[in-house]
Amino acid sequence: MSDNIEDTMCTESLPVNTIAMCNRLVEILRESDTNNAPSLCGKNDVGFKNFKKCLWLVNSQVYGQTTTINMMDEWSELCKGE
Q1: Res. 1: pLDDT tops 60
Q2: What distance in Å separates the CA atoms of residue 6 and residue 54, rounded to the nearest whole number?
Q3: Is the pLDDT of residue 70 over 90?
Q4: Tens-digit pLDDT profile for residues 39-55
Q5: Which of 12, 31, 38, 40 could form a disulfide with 48 if both were Cys (CB 3.0 to 4.6 A apart)?
Q6: CA triplet 48, 53, 57: central angle to 5 degrees?
Q7: Are 40 and 34 in contact (CB under 8 A)?
Q8: What is the distance between the alpha carbons of residues 62 and 58, in angstroms, rounded to a whole number?
Q9: Closest CA to 33 of 19, 45, 17
Q10: Contact 5, 54 (CB under 8 A)
Q11: Cα(64)–Cα(58) distance, rounded to whole angstroms?
Q12: Cα separations in angstroms, 66 against 18, 39, 57, 79
């Protein structure tokens, strides 16, 4: 059994509760006393790694587990017509 939802990232089955994942993202930020991801110290920081794992879980639900996300394409699609 995993302590945190992000610990399930490397298991055989992934969680399906997006709200729990998003709540955990907020919890990680609060644990680091910040309100933005870039302030999570750095690549080697445990909080940053846990944040990225949890974000991967959310992205895997939206885009699929084996896709590449092109942020410029996403921006263009999401901002079309605005």
Answers
A1: no
A2: 5
A3: yes
A4: 887 766 888 999 999 99
A5: 40
A6: 145
A7: yes
A8: 7
A9: 45
A10: yes
A11: 9
A12: 18, 28, 12, 25
Tokens of 8: 């399930």
Token pair in block for residue 4: 């945190």
Q: Residues, the chain, total?
A: 82
pTM of the model: 0.84
What token pair was written down for 9? 């990232």
Alpha carbon distance 35, 40 (integer Å): 9
Minimum mean pLDDT range among 3-17, 30-44, 67-81: 30-44
Instruction: Say how far apart CA 54 and CA 36 lie, in whole Å.
Output: 15
Check if the beta carbon of residue 57 is closer than 8 Å to that of residue 10: no
Amino acid at 60: S
